[in-house]
Amino acid sequence: SQTIHQWPATLVQPVGSPLSLECTVEGTSNPNLYWYRQAAGRGLQLLFYSVGIGQISSEVPQNLSASRPQDRQFILSSKKLLLSDSGFYLCAWDSGNTIYFGEGSWLTVV
Amino acid sequence: GNSVTQMEGPVTLSEEAFLTINCTYTATGYPSLFWYVQYPGEGLQLLLKATKADDKGSNKGFEATYRKETTSFHLEKGSVQVSDSAVYFCALSQGVGGFKTIFGAGTRLFVKA
User: Chain B partners of A94 at a C-beta cutoff of 8 Å?
Assistant: First the structure.
């Protein structure tokens, strides 16, 4: 069966520091991959999606970037974090038109 | 464009009460409809889904019926438990892949013992 993992689960970073969140999917090949953000008490915002290695689509222009160096690996990055980057970040993949989420990563920028 | 509207929360119920969380949608054609649940501090889990009109999705005692005539997909449970306390998201998707999935704002449910 397919599984999705992301890490770290929690991190506290100072303003201006870099960020790297990693996500891997197992049990499937060439999945569509997604990064969502959920601000405190709010709904989901699609940040990036990828249909294959090196192929990234950005849904919202911002301080973040994404990369897909391997088929089942998806990375969310920032060179300099802002306070407004705080939130809950969710990696996801799809099967047909059904999206499945990872456990999430809590980011607090201080 | 497509949209999903779900009832605002929070919803507070006593244990064993009947639950309804309303969800209506706007879409052309025939989208697939979903309910996701998010327990505190966790990611979203797929709770149930329906892919065509009159389909009923069900899981863990929860049910939702795809009503094309009223463009609705209301979530119901006959007897809630404290462990059902969570945020519930209604969503729709059209086409191949999840790129066009649209999520509602979420409804927080509190169940009191």
Answer: 97-98
